[in-house]
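Give me the fold.
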Amino acid sequence: MYNSVWFNSLAKPALNPPAKIFSPVWAVLYAMIFLSLFIFIRTSSVSSKTKGYIYFALQLLLNVIWSPVFFLMKNIGLALIIIILLDIFVLMTIRNFYRISKTAGMLLIPYLVWILFATYLNVSYFILNR
């Protein structure tokens, strides 16, 4: 965690999981995310994959910038906007990957569930720490 003193001082939501859960969950999710991409790349298709690649890149970028915005900049509101956009782009990625490969699309479902939970946490932090 980037700034544990600041983060530990925040009021926590009711369903706030222990910090030790995040690393193993993200390790599994990143493996599934990149396996999904690998399958998407390797699947031959007559359809264009361009949108799928764009959505994947955008969701990955949003995923990467969320932590510094939340923990380094301590900007819970901007982090909330980013994670809502992340939710949208993951949904769009799933939809486009699923058209090309059902397996590639389905592999992203646990990621979507996790970031929707993270969105709940972000909204809660925003409300509880205004």
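The chain has a mean pLDDT of 95.
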